[in-house]
Amino acid sequence: MLDRWTPTHTNTNVPRVVMFDPNKNGRNSSRWLENGSFFRITTLQAGYTLPQHMLQKAHLSNLRIYITAQNLVTFTKYTGFDPDFANNNGLFDRAIDNGSYPNRPFTANEAGGLPNPRSFLFGLQVGL
């Protein structure tokens, strides 16, 4: 492990590697705790309804073209997958996003679920 504590390298925040861990480095700590505040544009929709005088020749009462974007952008300093994760065991149960830990296998269940996908929807609303 790079940058770990050794007797000649004491200026680090990475614990030493030792067999049987006498310092109990595996216990609960705030080592991996980080600020999860974020600002997200969750849903954004833009559309245009054509004026009636343009629709008369096509015998339409209305025509609207639109685009909807979901999870467009998230502003955060959080280094994990998604600052809006939750554990499925209950509201007050702690959730752990293991996606930010280096060299650690990822499982969707362990990380509280996968990040919210970004999606785009294009539509056409026609009134006859």
Q: Your description of this structure?
A:
This protein is mostly beta strands. Helices cover 3% and strands 28% of the residues. It is built from one helix and three strands. The protein has one helix spanning 52-55, and strands at residues 38-49, 62-76, 119-127. The chain has a three-stranded antiparallel β-sheet, with no helix packed on it.
Features:
128 residues; mainly beta; 3-stranded antiparallel beta sheet; 1 helix; 3 strands
Low-confidence stretches: none
Specify the structural class: mainly beta
How many angstroms separate the termini? 68 Å
Order of helices and strands: EHEE
* Count of runs of 4 or more consecutive helical residues: 1
Radius of gyration: 25 Å
Chain-averaged pLDDT: 77
The helicity comes to: under 10%
**Count of individual beta strands:** 3
The dominant shape is rod-shaped
**How are the strands ordered across the major sheet?**
1-2-3
- Major beta sheet, specifics? 3 strands, antiparallel
Strand content: 25-35%
What layout of secondary structure does this protein have?
Blueprint: E1 38-49, H1 52-55, E2 62-76, E3 119-127
